[in-house]
Amino acid sequence: MKKPTIVVLGAGYGGLMTVTRLQKALGQNEAEIVLVNKNDYHYETTWLHEASAGTLHHDRVRYPIKSVINGSKVSFIQDSVLEVKTEDKKVVLENGEIAYDYAVIGLGPESETFGIQGLKEYAFSISNVNTAREIRDHIQLQFATYSSEAEKNEDRLTIVVGGAGFTGIEFLGELANRVPDLCKEYDIDFKKVRMYCVEAAPAVLPGFDPELVDYAVSYLEKKGVEFKIGTPIKGATPEGIIVSKGEDEVEEIKAGTVVWAAGVRGNSVIEASGFEAMRGRIKVNLDMRAPGHDDIFIVGDCALIINEEINRPYPPTAQIAMQQGEVIAKNLTKLVRNESDLETFTFENKGTVCSLGDDNAIGVVFGKKVTGKTASFLKKMVDNRALLLIGGPSLVAKKGKFNIL
Ligand code: FAD
Ligand code: NAD
Protein backbone atom coordinates (compact mmCIF):
# COMPACT_ATOMS: atom_id res chain seq x y z
CA MET A 1 0.00 0.00 0.00
CA LYS A 2 1.22 3.52 -0.81
CA LYS A 3 2.42 5.34 2.28
CA PRO A 4 0.54 8.55 3.08
CA THR A 5 2.10 11.95 2.42
CA ILE A 6 2.06 14.44 5.29
CA VAL A 7 2.77 17.99 4.16
CA VAL A 8 3.71 20.51 6.83
CA LEU A 9 3.46 24.16 5.76
CA GLY A 10 5.71 26.56 7.66
CA ALA A 11 8.89 25.87 9.63
CA GLY A 12 8.08 28.09 12.60
CA TYR A 13 7.57 26.94 16.17
CA GLY A 14 4.41 24.98 15.38
CA GLY A 15 5.60 23.46 12.09
CA LEU A 16 9.04 22.44 13.32
CA MET A 17 7.69 21.00 16.55
CA THR A 18 5.28 18.89 14.49
CA VAL A 19 7.99 17.71 12.09
CA THR A 20 10.66 16.96 14.68
CA ARG A 21 8.16 14.93 16.74
CA LEU A 22 6.83 13.14 13.63
CA GLN A 23 10.29 12.16 12.44
CA LYS A 24 10.90 10.51 15.83
CA ALA A 25 7.53 8.78 15.98
CA LEU A 26 7.17 7.41 12.45
CA GLY A 27 9.30 4.86 10.69
CA GLN A 28 10.64 5.54 7.18
CA ASN A 29 8.11 3.14 5.67
CA GLU A 30 5.10 4.60 7.44
CA ALA A 31 4.79 8.04 5.83
CA GLU A 32 6.31 10.53 3.43
CA ILE A 33 6.91 13.76 5.37
CA VAL A 34 7.34 16.98 3.40
CA LEU A 35 8.14 20.33 5.00
CA VAL A 36 7.61 23.56 3.02
CA ASN A 37 8.95 26.95 4.08
CA LYS A 38 9.65 30.26 2.36
CA ASN A 39 13.25 30.37 3.53
CA ASP A 40 15.81 27.63 4.08
CA TYR A 41 16.14 28.85 7.66
CA HIS A 42 13.92 28.99 10.74
CA TYR A 43 13.90 32.24 12.67
CA GLU A 44 13.07 32.67 16.32
CA THR A 45 10.12 35.04 15.95
CA THR A 46 10.31 35.62 19.69
CA TRP A 47 13.76 37.21 19.30
CA LEU A 48 12.95 39.48 16.36
CA HIS A 49 12.59 42.60 18.53
CA GLU A 50 16.30 42.23 19.32
CA ALA A 51 17.34 41.94 15.67
CA SER A 52 15.03 44.87 14.83
CA ALA A 53 16.62 47.15 17.42
CA GLY A 54 20.09 45.97 16.40
CA THR A 55 21.00 44.59 19.81
CA LEU A 56 21.38 41.07 18.38
CA HIS A 57 22.64 40.27 14.88
CA HIS A 58 19.99 38.71 12.64
CA ASP A 59 22.18 35.63 12.10
CA ARG A 60 21.89 34.89 15.81
CA VAL A 61 18.10 34.57 15.53
CA ARG A 62 18.05 32.01 12.72
CA TYR A 63 19.37 28.55 11.91
CA PRO A 64 19.24 26.24 8.86
CA ILE A 65 16.10 24.10 8.75
CA LYS A 66 18.16 21.16 7.53
CA SER A 67 20.12 21.20 10.80
CA VAL A 68 17.05 19.98 12.72
CA ILE A 69 15.35 17.63 10.27
CA ASN A 70 16.23 14.05 9.51
CA GLY A 71 16.86 14.02 5.75
CA SER A 72 16.12 10.31 5.50
CA LYS A 73 12.56 10.83 6.73
CA VAL A 74 11.68 14.44 5.82
CA SER A 75 11.99 16.18 2.44
CA PHE A 76 12.36 19.94 2.59
CA ILE A 77 11.00 22.24 -0.12
CA GLN A 78 11.94 25.91 -0.08
CA ASP A 79 8.98 27.73 -1.62
CA SER A 80 6.09 30.06 -0.80
CA VAL A 81 2.63 28.63 -0.19
CA LEU A 82 -0.09 30.44 -2.12
CA GLU A 83 -3.16 28.33 -1.43
CA VAL A 84 -4.37 25.02 -0.06
CA LYS A 85 -6.86 23.40 -2.48
CA THR A 86 -8.78 21.30 0.00
CA GLU A 87 -11.09 19.64 -2.57
CA ASP A 88 -8.13 18.44 -4.64
CA LYS A 89 -5.90 17.78 -1.59
CA LYS A 90 -3.15 19.91 -3.12
CA VAL A 91 -0.97 22.77 -1.96
CA VAL A 92 -0.27 25.45 -4.55
CA LEU A 93 3.23 26.86 -4.27
CA GLU A 94 4.83 29.74 -6.13
CA ASN A 95 6.84 27.18 -8.11
CA GLY A 96 4.64 24.11 -8.30
CA GLU A 97 2.11 21.95 -6.47
CA ILE A 98 2.23 19.13 -3.92
CA ALA A 99 -0.43 16.54 -3.24
CA TYR A 100 -1.11 15.55 0.36
CA ASP A 101 -2.99 12.94 2.31
CA TYR A 102 -2.65 15.03 5.47
CA ALA A 103 -1.65 18.69 5.74
CA VAL A 104 -0.56 20.80 8.70
CA ILE A 105 -0.87 24.56 8.26
CA GLY A 106 1.63 26.46 10.41
CA LEU A 107 2.27 29.58 8.35
CA GLY A 108 2.31 31.90 11.34
CA PRO A 109 1.15 35.46 11.81
CA GLU A 110 0.96 38.60 9.68
CA SER A 111 0.84 42.16 10.93
CA GLU A 112 -2.76 43.39 11.42
CA THR A 113 -3.20 47.00 10.37
CA PHE A 114 -7.01 47.08 10.84
CA GLY A 115 -7.27 49.01 7.55
CA ILE A 116 -5.59 52.08 9.11
CA GLN A 117 -4.42 54.33 6.30
CA GLY A 118 -0.76 54.67 5.52
CA LEU A 119 0.50 51.93 7.84
CA LYS A 120 1.36 49.48 5.05
CA GLU A 121 3.27 52.19 3.17
CA TYR A 122 4.96 54.17 5.94
CA ALA A 123 5.31 51.94 9.00
CA PHE A 124 7.55 48.95 9.66
CA SER A 125 6.45 45.75 11.39
CA ILE A 126 8.48 43.23 13.38
CA SER A 127 7.52 40.19 11.33
CA ASN A 128 10.53 38.29 10.02
CA VAL A 129 14.29 38.53 9.43
CA ASN A 130 13.83 40.86 6.45
CA THR A 131 11.64 43.36 8.29
CA ALA A 132 13.96 43.21 11.32
CA ARG A 133 16.96 44.10 9.15
CA GLU A 134 14.98 46.92 7.53
CA ILE A 135 14.04 48.45 10.88
CA ARG A 136 17.59 48.23 12.25
CA ASP A 137 19.12 49.71 9.08
CA HIS A 138 16.48 52.42 8.74
CA ILE A 139 17.03 53.72 12.28
CA GLN A 140 20.78 53.67 11.76
CA LEU A 141 20.42 55.54 8.46
CA GLN A 142 18.25 58.20 10.11
CA PHE A 143 20.95 58.77 12.75
CA ALA A 144 23.74 58.85 10.14
CA THR A 145 21.79 61.24 7.89
CA TYR A 146 21.04 63.57 10.81
CA SER A 147 24.73 63.77 11.67
CA SER A 148 25.80 64.66 8.16
CA GLU A 149 23.03 67.03 7.08
CA ALA A 150 23.67 70.77 7.20
CA GLU A 151 20.12 71.71 8.15
CA LYS A 152 19.35 69.33 10.98
CA ASN A 153 15.94 67.64 10.89
CA GLU A 154 15.39 66.50 14.49
CA ASP A 155 12.29 64.49 13.53
CA ARG A 156 14.66 61.93 12.08
CA LEU A 157 15.62 61.06 15.63
CA THR A 158 12.04 60.34 16.71
CA ILE A 159 10.98 56.71 16.84
CA VAL A 160 7.31 55.87 17.35
CA VAL A 161 6.25 52.41 18.46
CA GLY A 162 2.55 51.76 17.88
CA GLY A 163 1.04 49.44 20.48
CA ALA A 164 2.09 48.70 24.05
CA GLY A 165 1.45 44.97 23.84
CA PHE A 166 4.28 42.52 24.52
CA THR A 167 5.92 43.09 21.14
CA GLY A 168 5.92 46.89 21.49
CA ILE A 169 7.26 46.80 25.05
CA GLU A 170 9.96 44.22 24.29
CA PHE A 171 11.10 46.25 21.28
CA LEU A 172 11.21 49.45 23.34
CA GLY A 173 13.30 47.66 25.96
CA GLU A 174 15.90 46.82 23.31
CA LEU A 175 15.68 50.25 21.69
CA ALA A 176 16.26 52.01 25.01
CA ASN A 177 19.55 50.08 25.29
CA ARG A 178 20.53 50.58 21.64
CA VAL A 179 19.87 54.33 21.28
CA PRO A 180 22.66 55.49 23.66
CA ASP A 181 25.13 53.41 21.60
CA LEU A 182 23.81 54.88 18.34
CA CYS A 183 24.15 58.38 19.80
CA LYS A 184 27.79 57.69 20.63
CA GLU A 185 28.43 56.21 17.22
CA TYR A 186 26.93 59.17 15.35
CA ASP A 187 27.95 62.02 17.74
CA ILE A 188 24.37 62.83 18.67
CA ASP A 189 23.15 64.31 21.95
CA PHE A 190 20.86 61.67 23.51
CA LYS A 191 18.46 64.44 24.61
CA LYS A 192 17.56 65.07 20.98
CA VAL A 193 16.21 61.52 20.51
CA ARG A 194 12.57 60.78 21.27
CA MET A 195 11.14 57.30 21.75
CA TYR A 196 7.34 57.27 21.89
CA CYS A 197 5.09 54.37 22.79
CA VAL A 198 1.58 55.10 21.51
CA GLU A 199 -1.17 52.85 22.86
CA ALA A 200 -4.92 53.01 22.17
CA ALA A 201 -6.03 51.28 25.39
CA PRO A 202 -5.99 53.14 28.72
CA ALA A 203 -3.08 50.97 29.96
CA VAL A 204 0.26 49.55 28.88
CA LEU A 205 0.18 45.73 28.41
CA PRO A 206 -3.62 45.69 28.75
CA GLY A 207 -4.79 42.91 31.05
CA PHE A 208 -1.33 42.11 32.48
CA ASP A 209 -0.50 42.37 36.18
CA PRO A 210 -0.71 46.12 37.08
CA GLU A 211 2.23 46.01 39.52
CA LEU A 212 4.49 44.49 36.85
CA VAL A 213 3.20 46.98 34.28
CA ASP A 214 4.10 49.88 36.61
CA TYR A 215 7.58 48.41 37.02
CA ALA A 216 8.04 48.20 33.24
CA VAL A 217 6.69 51.68 32.56
CA SER A 218 8.81 53.42 35.17
CA TYR A 219 11.92 51.51 34.06
CA LEU A 220 11.40 52.41 30.40
CA GLU A 221 10.54 56.02 31.25
CA LYS A 222 13.85 56.31 33.13
CA LYS A 223 15.55 55.15 29.95
CA GLY A 224 13.87 57.87 27.90
CA VAL A 225 10.65 56.27 26.60
CA GLU A 226 7.60 58.55 26.56
CA PHE A 227 4.21 56.84 26.84
CA LYS A 228 1.10 58.17 25.13
CA ILE A 229 -1.66 56.01 26.53
CA GLY A 230 -5.34 56.10 25.48
CA THR A 231 -4.10 57.44 22.15
CA PRO A 232 -5.27 55.44 19.11
CA ILE A 233 -3.18 55.71 15.97
CA LYS A 234 -5.44 56.76 13.09
CA GLY A 235 -3.00 56.94 10.23
CA ALA A 236 0.59 57.06 9.07
CA THR A 237 2.15 59.51 6.62
CA PRO A 238 5.66 59.96 5.16
CA GLU A 239 6.25 62.41 8.05
CA GLY A 240 4.99 60.34 10.99
CA ILE A 241 1.65 59.32 12.50
CA ILE A 242 -1.78 60.80 13.12
CA VAL A 243 -3.36 60.07 16.49
CA SER A 244 -6.79 60.70 17.96
CA LYS A 245 -6.95 63.35 20.62
CA GLY A 246 -10.38 63.51 22.21
CA GLU A 247 -13.61 63.08 20.24
CA ASP A 248 -12.94 64.81 16.92
CA GLU A 249 -9.44 66.18 17.26
CA VAL A 250 -6.36 64.64 15.75
CA GLU A 251 -2.67 65.34 16.28
CA GLU A 252 0.36 64.65 14.13
CA ILE A 253 3.49 63.17 15.69
CA LYS A 254 6.42 63.66 13.35
CA ALA A 255 8.82 60.76 13.31
CA GLY A 256 11.61 59.40 11.14
CA THR A 257 10.71 55.83 12.13
CA VAL A 258 7.33 54.30 12.85
CA VAL A 259 7.13 50.68 14.00
CA TRP A 260 3.64 49.20 14.06
CA ALA A 261 3.49 46.57 16.81
CA ALA A 262 -0.23 46.80 17.48
CA GLY A 263 -1.46 43.37 16.62
CA VAL A 264 -1.28 40.24 14.55
CA ARG A 265 -3.61 38.08 12.48
CA GLY A 266 -3.29 34.63 10.95
CA ASN A 267 -1.61 34.13 7.59
CA SER A 268 -3.59 35.36 4.55
CA VAL A 269 -3.17 31.91 2.91
CA ILE A 270 -5.94 30.76 5.28
CA GLU A 271 -8.51 33.09 3.68
CA ALA A 272 -7.08 32.58 0.19
CA SER A 273 -7.83 28.86 0.67
CA GLY A 274 -11.47 29.51 1.57
CA PHE A 275 -11.41 28.38 5.20
CA GLU A 276 -13.89 29.95 7.58
CA ALA A 277 -11.70 32.14 9.77
CA MET A 278 -11.58 35.10 12.11
CA ARG A 279 -8.76 37.40 11.02
CA GLY A 280 -6.90 34.54 9.42
CA ARG A 281 -7.32 32.20 12.38
CA ILE A 282 -9.33 28.98 12.21
CA LYS A 283 -11.30 27.92 15.28
CA VAL A 284 -9.98 24.38 15.45
CA ASN A 285 -11.61 21.22 16.77
CA LEU A 286 -10.29 19.77 20.04
CA ASP A 287 -7.94 17.46 18.10
CA MET A 288 -6.44 20.52 16.26
CA ARG A 289 -8.14 19.75 12.94
CA ALA A 290 -9.96 22.38 10.88
CA PRO A 291 -13.74 21.89 11.16
CA GLY A 292 -15.04 19.89 8.21
CA HIS A 293 -11.51 18.87 7.15
CA ASP A 294 -10.43 15.57 8.70
CA ASP A 295 -7.15 15.70 6.78
CA ILE A 296 -6.03 19.20 7.82
CA PHE A 297 -4.46 20.27 11.10
CA ILE A 298 -3.82 23.90 12.04
CA VAL A 299 -0.94 24.87 14.32
CA GLY A 300 0.26 28.08 15.94
CA ASP A 301 -0.91 31.58 15.09
CA CYS A 302 -3.29 30.33 12.36
CA ALA A 303 -5.23 28.33 14.98
CA LEU A 304 -7.77 29.78 17.35
CA ILE A 305 -8.73 28.09 20.60
CA ILE A 306 -11.10 29.56 23.17
CA ASN A 307 -10.00 29.71 26.79
CA GLU A 308 -13.25 28.52 28.36
CA GLU A 309 -12.37 30.12 31.73
CA ILE A 310 -12.71 33.62 30.29
CA ASN A 311 -14.51 32.82 27.03
CA ARG A 312 -11.81 34.52 24.97
CA PRO A 313 -9.21 33.12 22.58
CA TYR A 314 -5.84 32.17 24.00
CA PRO A 315 -3.27 34.75 22.85
CA PRO A 316 -1.21 33.41 19.96
CA THR A 317 2.21 32.52 21.37
CA ALA A 318 5.19 30.31 20.64
CA GLN A 319 4.44 28.47 23.86
CA ILE A 320 0.99 27.33 22.71
CA ALA A 321 2.22 26.69 19.13
CA MET A 322 4.86 24.22 20.35
CA GLN A 323 2.41 22.41 22.62
CA GLN A 324 -0.03 22.12 19.71
CA GLY A 325 2.72 20.75 17.47
CA GLU A 326 3.32 17.88 19.89
CA VAL A 327 -0.36 16.91 19.93
CA ILE A 328 -0.67 17.18 16.14
CA ALA A 329 2.34 14.88 15.68
CA LYS A 330 0.75 12.33 18.01
CA ASN A 331 -2.58 12.55 16.19
CA LEU A 332 -0.99 12.21 12.76
CA THR A 333 0.91 9.15 13.98
CA LYS A 334 -2.38 7.63 15.09
CA LEU A 335 -4.09 8.41 11.79
CA VAL A 336 -1.21 6.91 9.79
CA ARG A 337 -1.54 3.78 11.92
CA ASN A 338 -5.34 3.71 11.45
CA GLU A 339 -6.00 4.40 15.12
CA SER A 340 -9.05 6.54 15.79
CA ASP A 341 -8.64 7.68 19.43
CA LEU A 342 -7.13 11.11 18.68
CA GLU A 343 -5.80 13.23 21.57
CA THR A 344 -7.46 16.49 22.49
CA PHE A 345 -5.40 19.61 23.05
CA THR A 346 -5.28 21.34 26.42
CA PHE A 347 -3.06 24.35 26.95
CA GLU A 348 -0.68 24.16 29.87
CA ASN A 349 0.17 27.78 30.63
CA LYS A 350 3.67 27.98 32.08
CA GLY A 351 3.55 31.78 32.32
CA THR A 352 4.66 34.89 30.46
CA VAL A 353 7.94 36.76 30.63
CA CYS A 354 8.35 40.11 28.88
CA SER A 355 11.91 41.31 28.38
CA LEU A 356 12.91 44.93 28.99
CA GLY A 357 16.18 44.78 27.13
CA ASP A 358 18.88 42.21 27.66
CA ASP A 359 19.24 42.83 31.38
CA ASN A 360 15.73 43.31 32.77
CA ALA A 361 12.28 41.77 32.45
CA ILE A 362 8.92 41.27 34.11
CA GLY A 363 6.87 38.12 34.25
CA VAL A 364 4.52 35.68 35.88
CA VAL A 365 5.99 32.19 35.93
CA PHE A 366 3.99 29.27 37.34
CA GLY A 367 1.78 31.89 39.02
CA LYS A 368 4.70 33.81 40.64
CA LYS A 369 5.62 37.40 39.79
CA VAL A 370 9.24 38.04 38.82
CA THR A 371 11.17 41.17 37.86
CA GLY A 372 14.74 42.32 37.22
CA LYS A 373 17.66 39.97 36.73
CA THR A 374 15.71 36.89 37.86
CA ALA A 375 13.05 37.56 35.24
CA SER A 376 15.70 38.31 32.62
CA PHE A 377 17.44 35.00 33.43
CA LEU A 378 14.13 33.14 33.13
CA LYS A 379 13.43 34.80 29.77
CA LYS A 380 16.73 33.50 28.43
CA MET A 381 15.91 30.05 29.75
CA VAL A 382 12.55 30.20 27.95
CA ASP A 383 14.35 31.19 24.74
CA ASN A 384 16.85 28.34 25.18
CA ARG A 385 14.05 25.87 25.92
CA ALA A 386 12.49 26.48 22.50
CA LEU A 387 15.85 25.60 20.91
CA LEU A 388 16.15 22.51 23.09
CA LEU A 389 12.66 21.24 22.26
CA ILE A 390 13.20 21.55 18.52
CA GLY A 391 16.92 20.95 17.98
CA GLY A 392 18.17 19.33 21.20
CA PRO A 393 21.27 20.25 23.24
CA SER A 394 23.47 20.79 20.16
CA LEU A 395 21.21 23.58 18.91
CA VAL A 396 21.24 25.18 22.37
CA ALA A 397 25.05 25.02 22.33
CA LYS A 398 25.14 26.75 18.91
CA LYS A 399 22.38 29.33 19.28
CA GLY A 400 21.55 29.56 22.98
CA LYS A 401 21.66 32.66 25.15
CA PHE A 402 24.39 32.33 27.77
CA ASN A 403 24.99 36.01 28.52
CA ILE A 404 23.49 35.58 31.94
CA LEU A 405 24.19 38.51 34.24
P1 FAD B 1 6.11 31.29 13.15
O1 FAD B 1 6.99 30.79 14.22
O2 FAD B 1 6.07 32.75 12.94
O3 FAD B 1 6.51 30.57 11.78
C1 FAD B 1 5.83 30.69 10.57
C2 FAD B 1 6.73 30.16 9.47
O4 FAD B 1 6.00 30.13 8.24
C3 FAD B 1 7.96 31.04 9.20
O5 FAD B 1 9.09 30.22 9.05
C4 FAD B 1 7.63 31.74 7.88
O6 FAD B 1 8.77 32.05 7.11
C5 FAD B 1 6.78 30.68 7.19
N1 FAD B 1 5.86 31.23 6.19
C6 FAD B 1 5.00 32.27 6.33
N2 FAD B 1 4.28 32.43 5.22
C7 FAD B 1 4.68 31.49 4.35
C8 FAD B 1 4.29 31.13 3.04
N3 FAD B 1 3.31 31.77 2.38
N4 FAD B 1 4.93 30.10 2.43
C9 FAD B 1 5.91 29.41 3.07
N5 FAD B 1 6.31 29.69 4.31
C10 FAD B 1 5.71 30.72 4.95
N6 FAD B 1 5.47 34.06 22.08
C11 FAD B 1 5.84 33.45 23.24
O7 FAD B 1 5.28 32.40 23.60
N7 FAD B 1 6.84 33.97 24.03
C12 FAD B 1 7.53 35.07 23.68
O8 FAD B 1 8.42 35.51 24.41
C13 FAD B 1 7.18 35.74 22.46
N8 FAD B 1 7.87 36.82 22.06
C14 FAD B 1 7.57 37.40 20.86
C15 FAD B 1 8.34 38.48 20.44
C16 FAD B 1 8.08 39.10 19.23
C17 FAD B 1 8.92 40.27 18.79
C18 FAD B 1 7.01 38.61 18.41
C19 FAD B 1 6.72 39.29 17.08
C20 FAD B 1 6.24 37.54 18.82
C21 FAD B 1 6.51 36.92 20.04
N9 FAD B 1 5.78 35.80 20.49
C22 FAD B 1 6.11 35.18 21.68
C23 FAD B 1 4.70 35.23 19.66
C24 FAD B 1 5.26 34.06 18.83
O9 FAD B 1 6.43 34.46 18.18
C25 FAD B 1 4.26 33.51 17.82
O10 FAD B 1 3.06 33.21 18.48
C26 FAD B 1 4.84 32.26 17.15
O11 FAD B 1 5.96 32.62 16.38
C27 FAD B 1 3.80 31.54 16.30
O12 FAD B 1 4.37 30.36 15.82
P2 FAD B 1 3.96 29.79 14.41
O13 FAD B 1 4.59 28.45 14.28
O14 FAD B 1 2.49 29.90 14.22
O15 FAD B 1 4.60 30.81 13.37
P1 NAD C 1 -1.17 42.51 20.99
O1 NAD C 1 -2.44 42.36 20.24
O2 NAD C 1 -0.95 41.66 22.17
O3 NAD C 1 -0.97 44.03 21.43
C1 NAD C 1 -1.25 45.07 20.54
C2 NAD C 1 -1.43 46.38 21.30
O4 NAD C 1 -1.68 47.41 20.35
C3 NAD C 1 -2.63 46.35 22.25
O5 NAD C 1 -2.22 46.85 23.49
C4 NAD C 1 -3.65 47.25 21.56
O6 NAD C 1 -4.48 47.95 22.47
C5 NAD C 1 -2.75 48.21 20.81
N1 NAD C 1 -3.41 48.85 19.66
C6 NAD C 1 -4.28 48.29 18.78
N2 NAD C 1 -4.68 49.20 17.86
C7 NAD C 1 -4.03 50.35 18.14
C8 NAD C 1 -4.02 51.64 17.55
N3 NAD C 1 -4.76 51.93 16.47
N4 NAD C 1 -3.24 52.59 18.09
C9 NAD C 1 -2.46 52.31 19.16
N5 NAD C 1 -2.44 51.12 19.77
C10 NAD C 1 -3.21 50.14 19.27
O7 NAD C 1 -0.02 42.28 19.88
P2 NAD C 1 1.53 41.95 20.07
O8 NAD C 1 2.12 42.72 21.18
O9 NAD C 1 2.12 42.07 18.72
O10 NAD C 1 1.52 40.42 20.48
C11 NAD C 1 1.07 39.43 19.56
C12 NAD C 1 1.06 38.08 20.24
O11 NAD C 1 2.39 37.67 20.52
C13 NAD C 1 0.32 38.09 21.56
O12 NAD C 1 -0.36 36.89 21.72
C14 NAD C 1 1.43 38.18 22.60
O13 NAD C 1 1.07 37.55 23.82
C15 NAD C 1 2.55 37.42 21.91
N6 NAD C 1 3.84 37.95 22.38
C16 NAD C 1 4.31 37.44 23.54
C17 NAD C 1 5.50 37.93 24.06
C18 NAD C 1 6.03 37.36 25.35
O14 NAD C 1 5.44 36.42 25.87
N7 NAD C 1 7.12 37.90 25.89
C19 NAD C 1 6.21 38.93 23.36
C20 NAD C 1 5.68 39.44 22.18
C21 NAD C 1 4.48 38.93 21.70
From TrEMBL:
GO terms classed as biological process: aerobic electron transport chain
Domain FAD/NAD(P)-binding residue range list: 5-325
GO molecular function annotations of the record: NAD(P)H dehydrogenase (quinone) activity
Domain of life: Bacteria
Cofactor(s) it depends on: FAD
Family: Belongs to the NADH dehydrogenase family.
Protein name according to UniProt: NADH dehydrogenase
Organism: Peribacillus muralis
